[in-house]
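Q: For a teaching session next week I want to show students how multiple molecules come together into a single three-dimensional assembly. I've collected the sequence lines for a complex. Could you give me the predicted structure tokens for the whole thing so I can convert them for display?
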Amino acid sequence: MSTILRLIWFDLKQELNPPIWIVMEWVVFGIQLTVYGALISRLVTSMADYLQFYAVGFVIMMTFEIGSHTGRHFVEHAHEGRLPYLLSLPIPRWKLFLTVALQGGVELALMLTVPLSVTLSIIGNLTPISALSAVATLFWLGFGVSGLMLGLSFIAFRSADLYTAIVTALSTMIIRFSTVLYPMIFLPASYAGAAAFSPLTYGSDLVRFFLGFDPNMLVNPQIAIAVLTALAVSTLGLSAMLMQRIVEGVKSG
Amino acid sequence: MHPIETEKLTKLYGKTKALRELDFTLDEGEIMVLLGPNGSGKTTLLLILSTVLKPTSGKASVMGFDVVNQSTKVRQVLGISFQDARGFWRHKPIEILQFHATICGVPRDKRETLIEEILKDLELWDARGKLFMHLSGGQAKRLEVAKILVQRPKLAIFDEPSSQVDLRGKRIIWDHIRKLREDGSTILVATNEVREAEYLADRITILDKGVKVACNTLQSLKDSIAGGDIVELEFEAKDSKDVAEALGNLEGTFRVTKEEENHLRAYVSMAEEWVPKMTNICYQKGVKVVSVRVTEPSLDDVFLHFTGRALGATAT
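A: Of course. Below is the structure for the complete assembly, covering every listed component.
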């Protein structure tokens, strides 16, 4: 365990020195919420307080974005020469994989601290259990997205362009065809059908369920838990297997 | 058990064959130099041995551990200094060495002293607090080598350890690699620099297009070139025709050419054995020899002899 922590800390302390990227995420959240969120919530009249709904949705989008960074970092490390070095260290491959996944989790936690706190304070009137359940859901979703992107990152070893194209297209579809920004009950049937395949639908609705939103406009929380668990376990398991069997450092010379 | 053993080791990158059924062994305590031009398969072999790449077919073992099935054990006994020192742009040299030493299990009580000593020896002490991205190419390369000197693994692998380093720095690195061997490590060095190979090698393996074309000590490789040694003879008398004929019939003579009236050039194998025989003939024929100059083939000549190409040419 100490090896894993050392590996995580070795990179993390650079992120924190100074924590520019983390603070930038907070600033982006603040601007998005106070400008776009505040204005759009005045336009949306069919919901009591759309700002609350939007704030949760934006946190979910941040979770997706940060989780997808994990896969991208992994590929960048390969091309920068860090991956061959890490692969040559006396560490079992599974520990290395766990390190990559956990590092993504820790970065997620750091970047979401302020946005999530602000969101929880906007919603207010929460119990510690509901807040903790929402946090746990975000982590579970983050792991699932990280696993998905790590799995896809192996494409990048063949073609970085193809990887970028796939991830961009996937991100666009997964976010737009989901309940991140609008509840399922407002979606036309064709959109709702597509949203049922987006993991963000289950992530965002489960977080909202724990934070006390009207359950009638959310997907069934038990189904959401099952889907997120299946996503995290299957994608992380698949990525771990790929790393064990396939991963190689990028050849040089 | 050899520290390194490969059997029919093959690596394909798509349709390109980087290694072709390579059989290769390394003896304990030796410094083996892999010599070959860019693209000859040196780096691929090193990356397979260090478990970074997987072979397409064939077998490879390090200290008895299979590189595919026992890869973690392999990594516990070896350390590799990569050709390109990259990857930790925002870290400082001292942090990189502390991290590497810790992960590789260098005892805590020796760690700091060893790191300081190596950083000072490799003239990196003043740069220990700079960010990696601000180091010069030579400094980054020395840091890459320093990782292995701090780690002191049983099997140390260096991929072009002194490329981008100035002449003084090269000598310091080479001396440290030799010292590492004296302290008990077995060493594998890949290079395309003749001087590096000559300075370090106990044995040299010549790789060309993924194939091992020769493996022996430097002297044996030179000696294996028929007519590779050149002996220039100058006589006191001008008429040396009889002597030229007699020398041409000597065992080990490849050919004899007359450069001037009293000047012969003989292309021979094993000049150290040929010269005493030549002296006897001259004595018998009453010819006085004014000067003898022996030129051995260079490692470049050795490479040219075995591959048909100059070392500087890129393998295609």
